[in-house]
Amino acid sequence: MAPHASTVAEACAVVDSCRYPPQGHRSASGSGPSYAARFQGEINSFRNEQSLLIAMLATPEAIENADATAAVDGIDMLQIGSSGQYTHARMRAACETTARAARSHGKSMGVGGVPEDFEFQRWLTRLGMRYLTGGSDVGLSSAPAWPMCCGYARYSFLRVP
């Protein structure tokens, strides 16, 4: 996940830094037993195919550029974070814009910062969200996770086939 991909130039720089040639310029080693008998181009293609590259849209400018960012080859998902203000009308509009951009380019949408609000998560799922960060390992390890897990289990809409 690459934070602050606010412009097409920044999204292209993320792809250039994170993808292996020919898609980007990330350095690659061909060492290791699973790569020993393969050409570097084959290894690079495999690594690019197996990597998920997420552009985090964290500013109003990024939301305005969501469609152009989603069009960048090499970006797999657009992620938007809520900073706890997910019920605000501007946040809902940003989610709708991001979902529309992702969908129009065959990309996925992710949302962060929406713990335990199952109705809002249902709304996001209807928009097309397929990745949710509703908490963190630190938060889950410092508080009982069982109530939250039971809450998620009640909602079949969160089970993606």
Question: Tags for this entry?
Answer:
globular; 161 residues; single chain; 4-stranded parallel beta sheet; TIM Barrel; 4 strands; alpha/beta
CATH architecture: Alpha-Beta Barrel
Main beta sheet: strand number and arrangement? Answer: 4 strands, parallel
The CATH topology comes to TIM Barrel
Q: N-to-C terminal Cα separation, in Å?
A: 24 Å
Average pLDDT for all residues: 84
Q: In total, how many beta strands?
A: 4
CATH H-level superfamily title: Phosphoenolpyruvate-binding domains
N-to-C order of helices and strands: HHEHHEHEHEHH
Residues in helix, %: 40-55%
Spatial ordering of strands, largest sheet: 1-2-3-4
State which percent range the strand residues make up. 5-15%
Based on helices, strands and strand pairing, what is the structural class? Answer: alpha/beta
Low-confidence stretches: none
Rg is 18 Å
Please identify the top-level CATH class. Answer: Alpha Beta
Number of domains: 1
The outline comes out as globular
Outline:
This protein has 161 residues and is α/β, with parallel strands linked by helices. It has helices at residues 8-18, 40-50, 60-64, 66-70, 89-104, 118-127, 137-142, 146-153, and strands spanning 54-57, 77-81, 108-112, 129-133.
3D architecture notes:
45% of the residues lie in helices and 12% in strands. With 161 residues, the chain is α/β, with parallel strands linked by helices. The chain has one domain: Phosphoenolpyruvate-binding domains (TIM Barrel). Strands 1-2-3-4 form a 4-stranded parallel beta sheet. The model has no long low-confidence stretch (mean pLDDT 84).
